[in-house]
Amino acid sequence: MTEKQPEPPRRSPRTRLLVTRPAEDAEPLVRRLEALGHAVAVEPMLSMVWLDGPEPDLSDVQALLFTSANGVRAYAKRTSRRDRPVQAVGDATARAARAAGFGQVDSASGDVYALAGRVRALRDPAAGTLLHVAGSKVAGDLAGLLAADGFTLRRSVMYDAVPALTLSDDTATFLRTSALDGVLFFSPRTAASFVRLLAEAGLVDCCRTVDAFCLSPAVAEAARAYGGQGEMPWRSVRVAARPEQDSLLDLLPVAG
């Protein structure tokens, strides 16, 4: 009699993750997640609107401050000038600046507090103004953090981030059928928008089988908040050790 051979171990189904970043930022992240073996869906919580305006006046500017890759993109649409050093909030923003043609780029590899610290270390308040290229809504008080050290910061609004009005049918179906394992949140605003749309769609309870992966404690706070009705019932809320994309991805389960 032929001895029965043991069955090979079954591979677990791929983890399905939802990326909530704007389309411009989602594409490279999706490629990276898929290369790691995850199934990925995209549900942008914000859409970028590039604002028209004059070329920025850099006559008194010693450095450009970017707190998102979208700020870099907005600046690049306004002007071809790349003759000022760049201070970027994080590595992804720094990569966007280098890709846009800037030669002098420094990354704070963190949040606005880390960026303020790098500016203090590298810049002289007497050397000129700092130009912060930003959206219509910003997180953190960068100007306030630097004013105490004598820096003058001018904020130039070059884009608007418009919140999504509804969840897609695909995302709603993933949630209703427990086919979604985790959601990635990179900003308090995107997390708050997602929670709001879940509530409007009556899908809050569907989050009990979903993990929320958050870039920072502030993002996690927004993901937990449920409009004064307690906390969102996520299966878990995980926070990156550092406010960087690589640190956030370290939280993800190993793909099967």
TrEMBL record:
EC number assigned by the record: 4.2.1.75
One Pfam family cited in the UniProt record for this chain: HEM4
Cited SUPFAM superfamilies: HemD-like (SSF69618)
InterPro entries per the UniProt record, alphabetical: 4pyrrol_syn_uPrphyn_synt_sf, 4pyrrol_synth_uPrphyn_synth, UROS/Hem4
Signal peptide per UniProt: none
An annotated GO BP: protoporphyrinogen IX biosynthetic process
Domain annotation Tetrapyrrole biosynthesis uroporphyrinogen III synthase: ranges: 28-249
GO molecular function, one term: uroporphyrinogen-III synthase activity
Keywords associated with the record: Lyase, Porphyrin biosynthesis
Source species, domain of life: Bacteria
Catalytic activity: hydroxymethylbilane = uroporphyrinogen III + H2O
The protein's annotated pathway: Porphyrin-containing compound metabolism; protoporphyrin-IX biosynthesis; coproporphyrinogen-III from 5-aminolevulinate: step 3/4
TM region(s), chain numbering: none
Family: Belongs to the uroporphyrinogen-III synthase family.
Function in brief: Catalyzes cyclization of the linear tetrapyrrole, hydroxymethylbilane, to the macrocyclic uroporphyrinogen III.
Protein name: Uroporphyrinogen-III synthase
Source species of the chain: Azospirillum palustre
